[in-house]
Amino acid sequence: MQLESFxxxxxxxxxxxxxxxxxxxxxxxxxxxxxxxxxLTAAGFLLGANDATENDLTFSIAEDGSxxxxxxxxxxxxxxxxxxxxxxxxxxxxxxxxxxxRTFSPEVGSKLEIYREVPEDARLRELPKLRVPELKALNxxxxxxxxxxxxxxxxRLEEYAARGPKVLEWVQVEPTVKRRMPQFLYFxxxxxxxxETIRAALHSRYRTHLQDENLQGRISELENxxxxxxxxxxEDLCTxxxxxxxxxxxxxxxxxVSFQAGxxxxxxxxxxxxxxxxxxxxxxxxxxxxxxxxxxxxxxxILRQQExxxxxxxxxxxxxxxxxxxxxxxTHLDYVHxxxxxxxxxxQCKLSHxxxxxxxxxxxxxxxxxxxxxxxxxxxxxxxxxxRLEDAGxxxxxxxxxASALGVRNSVLLHERCFVGVEGPTExxxxxxxxxxxxxxxxxxAGIALWACNNNExxxxxxxxxxxxxxxxxxxxxxxxxxxPRGLFTPDxxxxxxxxxxxxxxxxxxxxxxxxxxxxxxxAKAANLLWKRVDGASWKASDFNQLRNEKKFSQxxxxxVRERSQAAPGGKPEMLYQLAKTLQCPEDVPLQLRxxxxxxxKLAND
Length: 606
Description:
Residues 127-161 form the SAP domain. By secondary structure, this protein is α/β, with parallel strands linked by helices. The chain is 41% helix and 20% strand.
């Protein structure tokens, strides 16, 4: 069973946030105090890893729209949509998708419920909890046979309930369903969480060991023995209560023993010099985070071993599903260690039974996933709202919004792996689209930052700065830029800025402009789709190829389309962008551009 998405109501600043996706990974970003950590905690609450308290209840909103300083909402509710495997559906008798919620209120406490089909008659629900006299009474009431053992009585009622009318309602989650819910593993970003990181990692292994078939029999036997002994003690207690409180009709305690909550405490002791032992909590923040990173990597190795141990058809559904949550995992880590964190998360996401939530400010982490994996949280009137950064056709716009919201524009300069300066708006709009078609990922997912020079000498200053500081940077401009009088990209001017025209610049065109790289057939196809001629004739490849010998091919094409079509684009950048959108497969991208993209990816990964 895996968590697909979840909704949160009444939990801290998350007054009402719906549709939070759980992917591999989901990156959660936004302003400080915007609800990132609360989102992780809410996911843990749903999966039973932590409890809610009265202090977690959202402050109420008054009629005038202001937040109350004293009144709180009455309930926390975190509801998840879960996906079940075929084996789980067969075992549990549930559909492929189920809704499960955990609620908390000060009066009732915590409840775990599932929205499912149940008998319309409430008496036929939760039958396994009934005692023999109660089962006999129900059998008699429904005209069923009252003979036999408890199992016989229960079976008759369950079969009767299965034949009767059903309704969809929230009911208590059965233990068999609860056991199939994902485990939650939390790694925090605060220094006091360093020891907790170790405890969480070992506790996950502890729970796995408890499921070992070689241990389950002995553990169950010991649990039952202790439960029986405690029941004897409890009976003495109840007798005493009944004696002291004669107004009570009955008093009963049903003690149950479980080893599930074991592993009370762990502590890591470090030493650099023999005899000088120091607890992890007493070390510096940087060392504590590096130790935590090592623990995460060890956990990742264990998770991979679990995956490999459950690769056969017979055992793959036995692998416990796990939701791993990282809260600011890059805090107090240098850039090299931040890259290790990202590699670790990517490695975990490749495991079929692992899902990952990451709360972070790091653009390095944000850029490392597809834009659709990013959740942007922000506070509006002290309440968290969520923005899904879906692919809207121009991925750079989304990344710019994130950087602006975080106020970490310098992090783009510090953390990106490859910087590419292009000539102007045409390349700035078209290259991201063509790169995604060619390489099946966004520019930012590959760690490539793109900016338009727009005939601004500041762009050359920026390029010189990057190269001087050992960063990977290059320019990609039209080949005819080399010969333009007083142009920005003449070899002499580039050399004055420390830019090697042969090494640091890719000259685009065949021979002069990027527009020339597209075939006459591609131009004609786009024109017939988008810019139909006023005379009703069809565009032909020859209409465009005859212009290739002109001094400025792009301008001649634009003028021709404007002259012969009422649906002509508003400018050359729009014209090439519309052409690029008609391309359908990587091979449609001109070879020169595919070679450029391949070299950029190589530079970004070196």
